[in-house]
Design a protein that fits this description.
The chain is an alpha/beta fold. The chain has 17 helices and 27 strands. A hairpin with a 5-residue loop joins strand 13 and strand 14.
Amino acid sequence: MEKLRMTSPDLTRANIDKVAELFPSVVTETLDAVGNPTRAIDFDALRQELSNHVVEGPVERYQLDWPGKREAEYAASAPIAKTLRPDMDASVEFESTKNLFIEGDNLEALKLLQESYLGKVKLIYIDPPYNTGRDFIYDDDFSSTRDEYLKRSGQADSEGSRLVALAETDGRYHSDWLSMMYPRLRLAKNLLTDDGVLFISIDDNEVDNLRKLATEVFGARNFVAQIIWQKVYAPKNSAQWFSEDHDYILIYARNKPAWTPNPLPRTAEQEARYKNPDGDPRGPWKAENMTARNPYSAGLYSITTPSGRVIDGPPRGTYWRISKSRFRELDADNRIWWGADGDNAPAVKRFISEVSAGRTPQTLWPYSEVGHTQDAKKTLLKYVPFRHTENVLNSVKPVELIQRILTLATNPTDEHIVLDFFSGSGTTAHAVLAQNALDGGNRRFIAVQVHEPLSAPEPDFDSILGMSLKRIENVGAELSGQINPPDVGYRLLRVDTTSMADVAMTPDKYEQGALAGLTSSTKADRTGDDLLFQVLLDWGLPLDVKLSEERWGDHTVHVVDEGALIACFDTIVDGNLVRAIAERTPLRAVFRDSAFASDADRINAEQVFRELSPATELKAL
């Protein structure tokens, strides 16, 4: 019976598989750290395959580089022995909701989501910590101390002595920030659908570096736009040089030809331009000029107005935009407007019912349309009760801003997944609920937030995640009063160490008294629900899938998505239970390896499934 892997996917191995598919001749074998043979790439052979397109050594090339980049590249690919543990008590409508909150480092969370959500996320919006020159909470192993940065950047020798008179330590913060962002963007890209898109909020400090970094990850051809958001409604008179009134939002598509933004609804001002002064039964219209400057040979002819006035032709240097025959067709259909007295130059009537229902999005977003930072702060205060003012975040984004992004990048009824892995106070989750309530949509969110305690705990919460949960709880209570309320629940999952016990030891480490404790491959403090979610991750099943727990005689059985997976994590299973599960013909089945009394029982279980449910994928943990 095959064992489950129980780690995040090894993306380096996945890359080797991709290279092997393109160049089978470069695949070889080597020995791993413990002497087992493993597949590897012969770089000399690969270099020969690409001999005319290899750049190596000191040859100059265009690239974004910084101290720590290699470690950041490794961090993106290295597997981790972690899991996501469900917190039933802190969740809302756990059994039925499609929304997820995840507490933990987002690099680890992104790795854990790689198989369950590979190519399934329609929209990613992130508001990463802006690089203000101070240390930030995402302190990955490859971030630099000041001394380490000086060595990496060639400004100090191995003993720490400076090699240059003035060390540029500001670069350390750029390097640390880039090293923090790089592996996260690489992993995030994997999760996007082919027509998915990434929106990133950023300020002037790192917009230049971020654009280069995102271009390296997504490719220059997938850059879509750089939005300017007017974030304040009044200038800051205390500014030393200029009042910084805007932030940026960078947009990158997974595959630009496959993604186009949805049109935005017409504004009230645009709607008001359509009138119906002649009572046309086709409804409101607006008059459009019939002349154009582009040369058009068929656009030179005289016109007689209903009042009898003859217009010899279009104004000098212009042409009628339509031919004479087409003009007569439109006039006969009452689609030409001559003015109230029938003596004006002709104009074409454009009916609102016949034009596009929306408007093309622009790269300048004024606060009058998408809100400003003060709006965002007021919204946070409305839904989260604060006793300590120092806990009120000042850098939150307006819900209206995220709703604008949702309008552009998602459709109401397509069950699109929206991911925010710097979720902070929960603005993206709030916006998803609000937009679903507005247009009847069924979008779902995945919000990831690192554990970040508050300096002064509040009565109902003591962390940034707790703040966002309280916010969504109150937003949900407000929206639940609607006739057709959206899904306002969420499953709360926490990043934790693997549920598998560490039983791999060398013989000299074993003690006779400890052998009894090594019979189980799982940790003693893990529940069946904990093990189930580790199995969901390992098998690449969605974490919002329908779950049910059933009693089959003396056994507890977990049924996932009505038979996509059936699991029993009891410490002892018998042949009757194995047969009962096999008779349900699930797609997948899993047991504890230690639950079988003997190898013979394990072999018998495999035989039962071969007879009753040969298509079932059977594994053990």
